[in-house]
Design brief:
Structural class: alpha/beta
Strand content: 15-25%
Strand order of the largest sheet: 2-1-3-6-7
Order of helices and strands: HHEHEHEEEHEHEHHEHEEHEEHHEEE
Distance between the termini: 78 Å
CATH architecture of the largest domain: 2-Layer Sandwich
Largest sheet: 5 strands, parallel
Helix content: 40-55%
CATH topology of the largest domain: Heat Shock Protein 90
Shape: elongated
CATH class of the largest domain: Alpha Beta
Number of helices: 12
């Protein structure tokens, strides 16, 4: 007897769910021009066994359209005839199933296939006023609200799936484009290496073979260096994306790092008659950073500036400190980028369209790598650009990583 009593009084999962629904308060709006129907529904809900119901009343279509476009209820009871207008039209004007409130059609007269018409117009359920009871009305409201929530969650999941699919397709196209470009980029220096190596072999017995070999060897060296740069870009990006990159921090003299990178690019700038100007403070700060990473970031930014600046242009490198950070800015008066180009340029596997002969070549990973490296140093890459007006790229290091004298070892 005792065990049976315990079993009977132990609440099941369904009992708990029913109890929760009884306690829940539902906000319901009724759109009906008949005050008597509103009073009837209000009384039925006041004694309904499931939940508590707060009923609001609207007596015309225009007011309902205006109100329900902004307000949200747990359910709306829409009469089939509202004055001279039809509740079906109201359902359609509110957007049907895409409305912010689940809608239930009410009718007091037989109308053939009205139930199907109501569902097609966007109603989530259909009730005959002549068959209403506290139980059936409460059940319809509770179930409409629950079904509406499930449908909304399903729609949201479908939107997320479509967005994820679109992102995956975009990434797949970008990677396919990237692989096609990289194949071309690898083939170009490899063809040069093979071609000039073959030329050296063929002209080995030629009277001026030594002189030709020196020239060919120079071309082979340049092509090999370009090939190595491409491989290093891919390896760097791979380490960063897999989380295997950790900066080897030491105190880096910012002025020395900038000057060395400028010296390396001086010939490339001279070949295009580009003026390189370096603006520095009287005292050069030290940066707690990975020495190789700092030089790589500066190299990538300066290479980009030279590549996208027309002959006779100007590039300024500026080192300056504020209260919050240290900036190394490389600005040019080159071709610049549009707002959409800036966001694309920071994405991996993206490369902007060519803007002239010799421009747009490379892996398209330079800015992506710079952005990842500076973020690994708790800093940021700031890009400002206008199409046809030039670009300013700034490496921003946090002030906590900046000193003017080497800290004493503890």
């Amino acid at each position: 007897m005792t065990s049976r009593s315990i079993l009977r009084t132990t609440p099941s999962q369904d009992d708990i769910l029913t109890d929760l629904r009884r306690r829940r308060r539902y906000r319901v709006v009724m759109v009906d021009d008949d005050r008597g129907d509103y009073i009837m529904v209000s009384r039925l809900l006041s004694i309904a066994p499931r939940g508590q119901f707060e009923l609001h009343h609207i007596d015309n279509v225009e007011a309902a359209v205006e109100h329900l476009r902004d307000a949200q209820y747990d359910a709306a009871l829409i009469d089939y005839t509202i004055g001279p207008e039809s509740g079906l039209d109201l359902l359609r004007r509110l957007g049907g199933r895409s409305a912010s409130t689940p809608m239930i059609m009410l009718t007091g007269a037989s109308a053939g296939e009205l139930d199907l018409m109501a569902l097609e117009a966007g109603a989530i359920d259909y009730l005959d006023k002549n068959e209403l009871s506290p139980q059936s009305l409460a059940r319809a409201i509770v179930h409409a609200h629950a079904r509406f929530d499930v449908e909304r969650q399903l729609q949201e999941s479908q939107r997320e799936l479509r967005a994820a699919r679109d992102r995956a397709e975009t990434a797949n196209r970008a990677k396919s484009d990237f692989l096609a470009r990289m194949s071309h980029e690898f083939r170009t220096p490899l063809n040069a290496i093979i071609g000039f190596s073959d030329a050296i072999r063929m002209f080995a017995s030629h009277p001026d073979a030594a002189e030709r070999a020196v020239g060919y060897a120079g071309h082979i060296e340049q092509s090999s260096a370009h090939l190595l740069d491409l491989v290093n870009d891919l390896l760097d990006l791979s380490r960063i994306e897999t989380g295997h990159y950790e900066p080897a921090r030491t105190w880096v003299d910012s002025n020395d790092a900038i000057q060395q990178v400028l010296n390396l690019h001086e010939i490339a700038a001279d070949e295009k008659s580009i003026t390189l100007e370096y603006h520095r403070p009287a005292e050069s700060p030290l940066i707690l950073a990975d020495d190789r990473a700092v030089r790589q970031m500066l190299t990538n930014l300066l290479s980009n500036a030279i590549k996208f600046t027309d002959p006779g242009g100007r590039i300024d490198v500026t080192l300056q400190e504020t209260e919050d950070h240290l900036d190394i800015m490389i600005s040019d008066n080159g071709i610049g980028m549009s707002t959409s180009d800036i966001s694309r340029a920071l994405e991996p596997f993206e490369q902007l369209a060519d803007h002239g002969e010799g421009k747009g070549h490379g892996s398209g990973l330079g800015l992506t790598i710079v952005n990842s490296l500076i973020e690994a140093h708790q800093g940021s890459l700031v890009l400002r650009s206008r199409l046809g007006m030039g670009t300013a790229a700034t490496l921003r290091f946090p002030s906590a990583a900046v000193e003017y004298d080497l800290p004493q070892a503890s």
